[in-house]
Amino acid sequence: MAELEQDPAYRERQAALEAEDEQQKARLAKAEKPLLADLAAIGIRTDSAWNLYQDPGSLPEAIPVLLDHLEREYPDKVLEGIANALDDRSARDSWHQIKTIYLSTVKATVRDRLAAVMAGIAVRAHYDDLLWFLTQESLGETRIYFLVRCTASGIAWPRARVAG
Predict the structure, then answer these.
(1) Span 132-158, mean pLDDT?
(2) DSSP letter at 139?
(3) Separation of alpha carbons 46 and 50, rounded Å
(4) Contacts of 117 (CB under 8 A, 6+ apart)
(5) How far is 160 from 71, CA to CA, in rounded Å?
(6) Which of 123, 134, 67 is nearest to 94 (CA)?
(7) What confidence score (pLDDT) does residue 47 get?
(8) CB 88 within 8 A of CB 121
(9) End-to-end C-alpha distance for the chain, whole angstroms
(10) Cα 124 to chain center, whole Å?
């Protein structure tokens, strides 16, 4: 490693990668500003959706704002942070809206993250939805989250429905 650090070409590549990383962080921070402004308007101050977990008491209030912004145009990394912030049991009351966005989005990142969220927050009242999701081939690989949840929860389902 010491040899690499002495190599000018290596140091130049490392510096270029670090500069690119900083530029990407700046682009994402700029892109996230409308979300952060809307959160601040309801009294939630954070520097990123990725950090909302640090103030779990703010999540119930943040959920409507997060859901609104999840349907807007953002870079995938910002959308991922917004969806990940929904992975809290307080989002259960918004199950129908989360499900609607999951089923209607064309954004792979949103669909994947919302599948993970729903699998994480589901309770018995949602099990029929989980089973139905498993039968929908159009939902693609995101269904794996529901299969894992159903299996872990001991939810029985007709094998013919899933195998179909």
Answers:
(1) 87
(2) G
(3) 9
(4) 83, 84, 86, 87, 91, 98
(5) 34
(6) 67
(7) 95
(8) yes
(9) 53
(10) 22
> Which of the 8 DSSP states describes residue 52?
G
pLDDT class of 163 with cuts at 50, 70, 90: very low
Backbone region of residue 140 per phi and psi (left: phi > 0; alpha: psi in -120 to 50; beta: other values): left
Q: Please, what is the average pLDDT of the chain? A: 90
> How big is the chain by its Cα radius of gyration, in Å?
20
Distances (CA, A) of 120 to 116, 117, 147: 6, 5, 12
The structure's pTM equals 0.84
pLDDT tens digit sequence for 116-135: 999 999 999 999 999 999 99
- Distance from C-alpha of 98 to C-alpha of 93, rounded to nearest angstrom: 10
- Which residues are within 8 A (CB) of 141 and not within 5 positions of it... i.e. 6 or more apart? 112
Contact of 66 with 32, CB cutoff 8 Å? no
Contact by Cβ (8 Å): 143, 134: yes
Residue 159 has pLDDT above 60, yes or no: no
Per-residue CA distances from 2 to 5, 10, 52 (Å): 5, 11, 39
pLDDT at 103 over 90: yes
Q: Which residues contact 126 (CB under 8 A, 6 or more apart)?
A: 95, 118
Cα–Cα dist 148/125, whole Å: 17
